[in-house]
Design a protein that fits this description.
By secondary structure, this protein is mostly helical. The protein is about 75% helix and about 0% strand. The protein has five helices and no strands. Helix 2 crosses helix 3. The longest helix is centred in the middle third of the chain and has 35 residues. The chain starts with a helix and ends in a 16-residue tail after the last helix. The model has no long low-confidence stretch (mean pLDDT about 90).
C-alpha cells in the first residue's frame, strides 16, 4: 500500500503531534491493551516470561530461606552472642524507644528508616 505525498505529510504531522504530547499512565495502559489485541502472540510470550520470572523468583527465595535456616542452625550461639552484644551496646536507645512506643509516640532510632522512607 503506497501513500500519496499529502497522506505522508499528514502522517508525519500526526506522528510529530503524538511525539510532542506527554503520555499519561492511562495512555500507557491503553497502548498496552491495544498491543495485546493486535499482537496476541507477543502478549502470550510476555505472559510466559512473567510466569518464568515469577517461578525463578520463588525458587531463589526458597533457596535463600533454606540457606538462612541452615546458617542460623549452624551458628546459633554466634548469632545469639552478636545480638546480645548489640543489645547491650544499644540498651539505652532500645529502652527509650520502647518507652516512647508504649506512650504512643514511637520515634525511630537515629539513622533508622521510617515507614514514610525518611
Amino acid at each position: 500500500m503506497t501513500f500519496t505525498p499529502e497522506e505522508r505529510e499528514e502522517l508525519r504531522r500526526y506522528d510529530a503531534m503524538i511525539d510532542a504530547a506527554p503520555m499519561t499512565y492511562e495512555d500507557y495502559q491503553l497502548s498496552d491493551f491495544v498491543e495485546a489485541l493486535l499482537f496476541p502472540e507477543r502478549e502470550r510470550a510476555r505472559a510466559k516470561q512473567r510466569t518464568a520470572a515469577r517461578r525463578r523468583y520463588e525458587r531463589r527465595k526458597e533457596k535463600a530461606r533454606a540457606y538462612d535456616r541452615e546458617y542460623q542452625a549452624a551458628h546459633r550461639e554466634e548469632v545469639a552472642a552478636r545480638k546480645r552484644a548489640w543489645y547491650q551496646a544499644n540498651r539505652e536507645r532500645v529502652l527509650a524507644q520502647q518507652r516512647a512506643y508504649r506512650k504512643g509516640r514511637a520515634r525511630p532510632f537515629e539513622g533508622q528508616r521510617t515507614a514514610a522512607g525518611e
